[in-house]
Design goal:
Strand 8, helix 9 and strand 9 form a beta-alpha-beta unit. The chain is α/β, with parallel strands linked by helices. It contains twelve helices and 13 strands. It has one domain: Phosphatidylinositol (PI) phosphodiesterase (TIM Barrel). Strands 2, 5, 6, 7, 8 and 9 form a six-stranded mixed beta sheet that branches.
């Protein structure tokens, strides 16, 4: 073999090896879950979350046990404010929420793993899950409209920069590879132990696709793909309750909040911050219609978060920053408290990387009755909520608000029966008989 032949063969081998490497990279990117679980960083993070899960799950009890406790008389050993039946409305309970559902953390360069992240959060007591949803700008090269703007779970900082290991959450997804749907499936399979209470799913939309006159259905199709991803949970939607109200399309938000929390045991309540009204002028099947699925809309408070819009009428759901509530003037606090009694309020720190501290959470919950300030499950900074016996969620995932912050149902007024002395027939009216 001469030198020329040798170099030719060597060149061919180099080209083949390079091609194989490129193909493997493409396959890894498309598959998304190729080998990130073998990384030391993933293993360390999983171990940290499992350790926190085991610590926080110790002694945890279900909603049914919480109600038994708070509905019983207070004792010296277990002092508490008794919860009467006219104050057991859904809106009257703080709920332990988990932000970045399906994400193991850490915030920067962390890992999506819906199975481990969601089951760990449930064992910690989380009953509200915030799914942060956006499209990926890296997919705009796709020729099909659906692929360019396909919704997926994201972790972004306050500048919109992406902060996760791409291998655990592929850039360009579709219905068969949707991390949103995988997260919904894990919730459907694990969140409904008997007596565990309702599950609240908050669809927090960061952005909607830009309007294009050539693609008028672009935003609706984007929302529809979110709705499709919720399919594993739809059979447990509160809209399937035969009595108690009609909750599709946010029809009876006030009633949703004032019904007894017991009515929703084993059910899902869907909330969303995006305006989905345009579905009401379109034709989509109900299981693909996000407006139909959403039971309560979270509207803008003082600060806009994501795609949240201002309320057109009385808001029954509000999404705002912790900083906004901390800045409320003293002379407006009483009015804000009264409004909060019939409002499902959710607060995030304006910086997504920050876990609100104990002082902030204490002030917002005890002063304004903020319903949910979600945690990051991997953060040690949330440990104060689980400390025994004083942590707000040390035992239960739902906790009654203090009486001064509760909505109190008005008693039903019933017409009194007519006394028998009202007429000569002992109160019985007879039809005259004609001759």
């Amino acid at each position: 073999m001469n030198v020329t032949e040798y170099l030719s063969i060597l060149f061919v081998l180099v080209v083949l090896v390079s091609g194989i490497i490129m193909i493997m990279k493409v396959l890894k990117t498309n598959e998304g879950f190729a080998d990130y679980k073998s990384e030391a960083g993933y293993k360390d993070q999983l171990a940290k979350v499992v350790a926190l899960r085991d610590l926080r799950a110790n002694g945890r009890q279900r909603m049914s046990q919480m109600l038994d406790f708070y509905e019983s008389a207070s004792t010296q050993q277990d002092p508490h404010e008794v919860l009467p039946s006219d104050q057991d409305s859904f809106v009257n309970f703080y709920t332990l929420g988990c932000r970045f559902a399906g994400y193991l953390g850490p915030f920067e360069k962390g890992y999506f793993d819906p199975q481990e992240a969601v089951t760990s959060a449930l064992k910690m007591g989380c009953r509200t899950f915030v799914l942060e949803i956006d499209y990926n700008d890296e997919c705009k090269h796709k020729t099909d409209e659906n692929g360019r703007y396909f919704p997926q779970l994201v972790v972004r900082n306050d500048q919109g920069r992406r902060f996760y290991v791409t291998a655990s959450n592929p850039d360009c997804q579709n219905s068969s590879s949707s991390i949103i749907q995988k997260t919904a499936k894990v919730l459907a399979d694990n969140a409904f132990d008997n007596g565990s209470g309702p599950l609240i799913v908050i669809l927090y939309v960061l952005r909607t696709p830009p309007y294009d006159s050539g693609s008028p259905k672009r935003t609706l199709d984007y929302f529809s793909n979110i709705a499709k991803a919720m399919n594993p949970l739809l059979n447990r939607s509160v809209d399937n309750i035969t009595t108690g109200g009609k909750f599709s399309r946010q029809q009876q938000e006030a009633l949703l909040l004032t019904n007894s929390i017991k009515d929703y045991d084993g059910r899902v309540i869907f909330m969303c911050n995006a305006n989905t009204d345009d579905f009401r002028k379109a034709s989509y099947d109900t299981d693909k219609d996000l407006d139909y699925i959403v039971n309560l809309r979270l509207t803008m408070g003082q600060t806009q978060l994501g795609a949240t819009t201002k309320a057109a009428a009385t808001p029954y759901g509000v999404l705002d920053t912790t900083q906004s509530y901390l800045s409320i003037p003293q002379d407006q606090i009483t009015n804000t408290i009264e409004k909060s009694k019939l409002t499902y309020t959710v607060c995030f720190d304006k910086n997504p990387a920050v876990q609100p501290d104990a002082e902030t959470v204490q002030k917002l919950t005890s002063t304004f009755g903020i319903t949910c300030i979600p945690i990051q499950i991997w953060s040690d900074d949330a440990n104060y909520l689980f400390e025994k016996p004083s942590g707000l969620f040390s035992k239960f995932g739902f906790v009654p608000k203090p009486k001064n912050l509760r909505f109190i149902k008005k008693p039903l007024m019933r017409a009194a029966s007519a006394p028998v002395t009202m007429n000569a027939q002992g109160g019985e009216l007879r039809v005259p008989i004609t001759p």
